[in-house]
Amino acid sequence: MTRFRAALAGRAISLLLLLALWEGAAELVHSRLFPGAVAVLGTLIDELANGELLHHLDATLLRVAAAFTVAMVVGSVIGIAMGFSRALDTLLDSWIVLFLNLPALVIAVLLYIWLGLTEAAAVGAVALSKLPTVVVTLREGTRALDRDIAAMARSFRLGFWRRFRHVVLPQLSPYFLIASRSGLALIWKIVLVVELLGRSDGIGYEIQVFFQLFDIRRLIAYALAFVAVVLAIEWGVLLPLERRLLRWR
Amino acid sequence: MMTTELTLDIAEKRYPGENGRGAVIALKGLRARVSPNEFCALFGPSGCGKSTLLNIIAGIDRSFLGKVGYGGGRIPCVGYVFQNPRLLPWRTVRENIELVQRRGADPRAADELLGQVGLSEAAESYPARLSGGMARRASLARAFAVEPDLLLLDEPFVSLDAAAADRLRELLLRLVSAQPATVLLVTHDAEEAVTLADRILLLSPAPGRVLGEMPIPIPREERQNRSTLEKLLAELGSLRTT
What is the spatial distance between Cα A130 and Cα A190, in angstroms, rounded to a whole number? Predict the structure, then answer.
C-alpha cells in the first residue's frame, strides 16, 4: 500500500509541475492566445456551472456510445464469422483492407453528402471508421481458438449456446478488450472531427466555434474536460472489466 | 441409462498432406466389435492411430471411409477422457463438470462425483491450480458426469507417477462398477491393458488395424497376483510376435 501511495504522490507532483510550467510559460508569453492554467481552470468551472459544457459533452458521449456499440456488435459478428468461414474470409478480406485504409475524414464527408448533415451520418461515419479494426481483431481471436478444447466440446455434444458462452466467448474476451480499448481510442479522435464537419453541438462543434472566435481559453477548457472523461472511462470502466474477465489467469 | 454395443468398420482414415503430398494413412481396414458393458483395451505402439480411432468413435472426426455402428442405431452418450485433461481453464472445477451435465440433471450429482474423485476441496478452484493428477481426476469426473453409455479413455494415466496412476486406475474401476458403460481404453502400457480390460484388441503400427485379440476371463482381483499377471503379459507378448 505504501508503494501505491508513493506512486500516487509521484503522479500528483508530476501533474502539479506541469500546471506550474504551463502557468509560468503563460506569464512569460503574456498573450491572449496562450492563457495560463489558472485562467483555463476558472473558465472550465464557469462552463460547468452554466451547463454549456455538460450539454456538449453529453451530445459527444452519446455519439461515442452509439458508434462504439454499433461498431463492436457488427464488427464482432462479421469478424467471428470470418474467423470460422474461409469462404467468407476470402470474400470480405479485401473489403476490410480497403476500409482499414480509407481515412475517417473521407468516410465522414461521403456520408454527410449521401445522408445529409444528420445524426445517423455522424454516428455511422464514426462506427464505420472503427468497424474494420474490430473485424480484424475478432477474426484473429476466432482463428486462435483452441482446437483441443473445441474437440472436447464437440465430443460432449454441448449445444450451440453452451459452447458459445462457455467455450468460445471466454477465449475471445481478451480480443474484445483489445478491440474496445483501441477502438475507443480511435473513436475519441474521430468523433470530434465528425462533429466539427457537420453537427451543431458536441465538443467538436464547440472547438470549431472557439477556433473561429479565437477563444483559446474555452478551447483548452473543453479539450481538458474531454480528456478527463476519456480517462475516467478508461480507468473506471475498462480496466476493472479487464481485471474481472481475466481473473482465471 | 443404456449401454452400447459398438461395431467398427473403418476402411480408411487418411490425413491429407500439403498440396496432396505427404498424406498419412492412419487407419486401414480396421474392424472390431465391442459388446455392451465390455471393458476393452486398444493396445498398440505410439502413433498407430489409436487417438484417431477414438475421435472417430466420439463423432469428432467424420472425414473417414467406413462406418461406426452404435447399438440401437442412435448415437450414444459419450464420456471422453483425453490424454491431456482439456478442462476449461476459465471455469472452476465444478463449473467444468456442470457444463457437460444434461439439462435437468440432479444438482447434487456434480458434488457427489467430485467427492468420489476426491476433489470436493478443489471444487471452486480454477484448473491452473490443480496438480497433474487432480486435473486427470477432474477430467474423469467430467466424463462420468454425462452418465455415458460409452466411455472413451485416451491414455488417461500417462505422465503420472506410478502410485498416482495406480490410484487413478482403482478409481476408474470403482466408477465403472457404479455406473456401467461400454469402455474403450487406449494404452501402450501392456500391464495396464492386462490389469484393467475384459478384452484386449492389439493394433498394428500405422496404418492401424486389428492384429489380434485377447480375452481375459480372469476376474480383476485375481490379476493382482504377480504370477497370473506375468502369465497374461507373456500371452499378450506372444500375440504381438505372431
Answer: 9
From chain B, the residues in CB contact with A155 under 8 A are 55, 58-60, 78, 80, 152
Task: Please give the Cα distance from A179 to B4 (Å, whole number).
Answer: 47
Q: Which of A151, A156, A171 sits opposite B146 (nearest CB)?
A: A156
Question: B5: which 3 cell numbers?
Answer: 454395443
How many Cα neighbours within 13 Å face the side chain of A129?
A: 28
Q: What string of H, E and C letters represents the secondary structure of chain B?
A: CCCCCEEEEEEEEEECCHHHCCCEEEEEEEEEEECCCCEEEEECCCCCCHHHHHHHHHCCCCCCEEEEEECCCCCCCEEEECCCCCCCCCCCHHHHHHHHCCCCCCHHHHHHHHHHCCCHHHCCCCHHHCCHHHHHHHHHHHHHHCCCCEEEEECCCCCCCHHHHHHHHHHHHHHHHHCCCEEEEEECCHHHHHHHCCEEEEECCCCECEEEEEECCCCHHHHHCHHHHHHHHHHHHHHHHC
Contact A248 B100 (CB under 8 A): no
Taking CA–CA distances from A153, the nearest residue in chain B reads: B100
User: Could you check whether the bond before residue B156 is cis, i.e. omega within 30 degrees of 0?
Assistant: no
Catalogue all structural domains in chain B, each as residue range(s) with its CATH number.
Answer: 1-77+150-159+175-242 (3.40.50.300), 78-147 (no CATH)
Closest CA to A203 of A78, A54, A89, A81: A54
By percentage, how much of chain B surpasses pLDDT 70? Answer: 97
Nearest CA in chain B to A173: B90
CA angle A123, A126, A128 (to 5 degrees): 105
- Let me know the angle formed at the C-alpha of B41 by B98 and B82, rounded to the nearest 5 degrees: 35
pLDDT for B107 equals 80
Instruction: For A159, name the nearest residue in chain B, comparing CA atoms only.
Output: B100
Strand B199-203, strand B182-187: pairing: unpaired
> A143: part of which helix (H) or strand (E)?
helix A119-143
The predicted-structure confidence for A43-96, as pLDDT tens digits, reads as follows: 999 999 999 999 999 999 999 999 999 999 999 999 999 999 999 999 999 999
**Shortest distance, CA A246 to any CA of chain B (angstroms):** 8
Distance (Å, whole) CA A130 – CA A188: 11
Name the band, by pLDDT with cuts 50, 70 and 90, for residue A146: very high
In angstroms, how far is CA B219 from the centroid of its own chain? 20
Is A249's CB within 8 Å of B128's CB?
yes
Amino acid at A29: V
Of B77, B84, B100, the CB nearest to A148: B84
